[in-house]
Amino acid sequence: MSTAKWTGRDDGRGPEHRRWHHAVNEFSSGPGVSLIGFASDAGVRRNGGRPGAQAGPDAIRQALASFAIQPEFVIRDAGDVVVEGDALEAGQENLGELVAKQLSDGHLPIVLGGGHETAYGSYLGLARSGLLDGRRLGVLNLDAHFDLRTADRASSGTPFWQIAAREAERGAEFAYAVVGISEPGNTTALFETAVELNVRHLLDLDCQERHLDQVLDFVRGFIADVDALYLSIDLDVLPAAQAPGVSAPSTLGVPAGVVLEVCRLAASDPKLAMADITELNPVFDVDNRTARIAARLAHTLATGRPVPEGH
């Protein structure tokens, strides 16, 4: 575990000058948003991608630090789970424990990856928290890829296949939807697996700005069918020009404005149990462009949720 130090722009005292670094450094009681870093490259390496995502959590924190935030929002930083070398499975277990603790304490966890292997650790936390007992989980993934690969070893390409297997073990139907699928980025075998698992999806071609209403209707329909929502965001869903700092840059992508609107919709729904933002690779970022959009997504999720009574 490690905990980052938050610093940033300071325009003066008083709530009217409050920024994220102030919020994190305050002592606040009651439920709020809890940030968790998952510093991992292991899954990306196993999947043959470009390593560098291990530095993603701190890059997102740095981009968030000077964002303005209203006084009523409670923000905590629960620190990092660091995956040393190839110890991915142990790291996912540790992430699950930390996510479960934050959920049990009444917080909304937002996990900052790390490769998309982060998602299986996020799910383990949901399963261990007791939040899913007697409830149908819906997994909404904003991603150019299904990440339903079958393999002997976990990687950044296998997390939702692993989640499907665990959901079957608990006797639950696997409810999984993906927004932004790239046809050239997914093999016929992956599309067939998606059909076998009854995965709902929208192609990136059908998620452009002119399709916003249809995209939001798709998301609303999915949320209506589940009891608890887990939102996972792979930054490679965005156009390469907006998010160059990822393991596998998109050839088309879903515009940032559409992704932000999906996040606003998810955040406003009380069914949202947790979220993660993955695949930021600062090594390949340009002018911190990807880190800044990742920070904006995290900010949208944190400030778009209903504020608890008493705040």
Question: What can you see in these coordinates?
Answer:
By secondary structure, this protein is of the alpha/beta class. It has 10 helices and 8 strands. It has helices at residues 20-25, 42-46, 56-64, 88-104, 118-129, 159-169, 188-196, 212-224, 256-268, 289-303, and strands spanning 33-39, 75-82, 108-113, 137-142, 175-181, 200-203, 228-234, 272-278. Strands 2-1-3-8-7-4-5-6 form an 8-stranded parallel beta sheet, with helices on both faces. Strand 4 (137-142), helix 6 (159-169) and strand 5 form a beta-alpha-beta unit. The longest helix is centred in the first third of the chain and has 17 residues, at 88-104. The radius of gyration is 18 Å and the shape is globular.
Characterize the quaternary organization of these chains: single chain
**Mean of the pLDDT scores?**
94
Based on CA inertia axes, which overall geometry fits?
globular
Strand content: 15-25%
Radius of gyration: 18 Å
Please tally the β strands and state the result.
Answer: 8
A few lines on this structure:
The chain has 311 residues and is an alpha/beta fold. It is 35% helix and 17% strand.
What labels would you give this structure?
311 residues; 10 helices; alpha/beta
Q: Topology of this structure?
A:
Layout: H1 20-25, E1 33-39, H2 42-46, H3 56-64, E2 75-82, H4 88-104, E3 108-113, H5 118-129, E4 137-142, H6 159-169, E5 175-181, H7 188-196, E6 200-203, H8 212-224, E7 228-234, H9 256-268, E8 272-278, H10 289-303
Parallel strand pairs: 1-2, 1-3, 3-8, 4-5, 4-7, 5-6, 7-8
Helix pairs in contact: 3-10, 4-5, 5-6, 8-9, 9-10
